[in-house]
Design a protein that fits this description.
19 helices, alpha/beta, Rossmann fold, four-stranded parallel β-sheet, 441 residues
């Protein structure tokens, strides 16, 4: 018997945080994918590595998305693919098809790249492909190329490491222990957005003679490998932590995870950790916090009691930001997320006690295909919150656009004022993939 899934799902797409369960406020069931595609995928992330080429070995139905992503970001000249057919599976020669297909792609190039990312897929898992043989043979045929072991296997998304985590780890595999280490340099690795040179963190480090190095500064593969010579490795990306730990152990380096911090206490603690590792004094917290207070007060004076909605795609710490804004007097009514990150467990418990009526709203519940657009008067922070509320007033950012610390809060306050005063065009902006990447759209 056919059952209407939206009726079966009922009204379970939102719950007051006071009644929500940790870490999963919503039951797993049929999912709806809203037409918002601003987060970075594996194509965008891989293109960060200079002089690299990506080769996907996949059936054509899945190939469509990655081909379009490469085209949309003006990177088709760094992208190749091998299409798998049904006969390649039942004839039992998937290893040979993969090796020969990748080899053919490379041999057709006018100039060989120094590094090639070979993306295997779910089918290679299903068939039990000898991936070790695949890479050994490719390295034998092309000894001048560094082959990275990458995956596009979303079937593993909830069972182990995600394709994102595997890719970021693979990107660091070529980095080796340096002969000499520059203790006055820090390498920010595996972040989608660079830490801006004018940010307070960069200015503070460089003011004390600490050189800040990032993947976006590298023009060649050799320069990228040179990032291993820094005295400290840092990532602000949760999916990058696994790869960074592996690299630090392999190279004998020190590393630090510096996640998005939105509370004053977190910013202080993480800044102290970073400065302590580098042996430099910390910045003037009191003055920066006063600047944040003034910026938030200006925004509140303008925005008033306008309902605010925050989503996890725009802000990696959505509950933390909701708590900060609520404490400052803003009228935060909704936080869009589908699970609570372990990094926000304590914030979740705190909000349950102090703001039990704050609504947690799913972004993938099947009912949302009919329920979205129910709060057009809202000021949204993040693309999913914008689409799901139906508002034209939204702060268009993903992963805080790479902003961090006090600087991020001051700039976000200004962006909220701008969004309140001027409507945007969600139909034009929100569907764009890889917000922050080069795009031909």
């Amino acid at each position: 018997m056919l059952v209407r899934k939206d009726r079966q799902a009922g009204e379970g797409y939102q719950v007051p945080i006071g009644q929500a369960a940790y870490p999963a406020p919503f039951k797993g069931r049929l999912e709806f994918n809203p037409p918002v595609h601003e987060n970075w995928n594996i194509v965008h992330i891989g293109m960060r590595m200079p002089e690299s080429r990506q080769i996907y070995v996949c059936a054509d139905n899945c190939m469509r998305g990655v081909v379009l992503t490469a085209a949309e970001m003006n990177a088709s000249d760094r992208f190749s693919y091998v299409v798998l057919e049904e006969k390649d599976l039942y004839e039992g020669n998937l290893e040979d098809v993969t090796i020969d297909g990748v080899s053919s792609c490379i041999e057709k190039l006018e100039e060989r790249p120094p590094v090639v990312m070979v993306f295997l897929v779910c089918l290679h898992h299903f068939i039990g492909t000898d991936t070790g043989r695949v890479y050994r043979e490719l390295e034998k045929r092309f000894p001048d190329i560094c082959f990275l072991r990458c995956w596009m296997d979303p079937i593993m998304q909830k069972l182990g490491l995600t394709p994102d985590q595997k890719l970021r780890k693979a990107m660091l595999d070529p980095l080796e222990a340096p002969e000499t280490r520059d203790e006055r340099a820090v390498s920010f690795l595996l972040d989608n957005f660079p830490l801006e040179k004018e940010s307070d963190l960069c200015r503070h480090l460089e003011g004390w003679g600490i050189r800040v190095r990032q993947i976006t500064d590298c023009k060649t593969f050799e320069e990228f490998k040179g990032l291993a010579s820094s005295g400290l490795y840092v990532t602000r990306s949760a999916p990058g932590l696994y790869g960074l730990e592996k690299m630090a152990r392999r190279t004998g380096g020190d590393y630090l995870y510096l996640p998005c911090a939105v509370s004053y206490e977190e910013i202080r603690q993480e800044t102290e950790d970073l400065c302590g590792r580098l042996g430099i004094p910390v910045m003037d917290f009191e003055e920066r916090e006063k600047e944040c207070d003034r910026a938030l007060e200006r925004a509140l004076a303008l925005i008033g009691d306008t309902p605010l909605a925050i989503d996890y795609l725009g802000v990696p710490r959505p509950l933390g930001l909701a708590g900060l804004l609520l404490d400052k007097g803003f009228h935060v009514t909704r936080v869009y997320l589908d699970a609570v990150s372990p990094e926000e467990e304590q914030v979740f418990l705190d909000l349950q006690e102090r703001y039990p009526d704050l609504l947690l709203c799913s972004t993938i519940h099947v009912s949302l295909r009919l329920k979205h657009g129910d709060a057009p008067e809202t000021l949204a922070i993040g693309p999913k919150a914008a689409w799901l509320t139906g508002t034209d007033h939204f702060v268009n950012l993903v992963e805080m656009n790479g902003m961090w610390g006090y600087d991020a809060l001051i700039r976000l306050s200004s962006m909220m004022e701008e969004a309140f005063l001027h409507a945007g065009d969600p139909r034009d902006v929100l569907p764009r993939k890889g917000f922050g990447c080069e795009s031909c759209i």
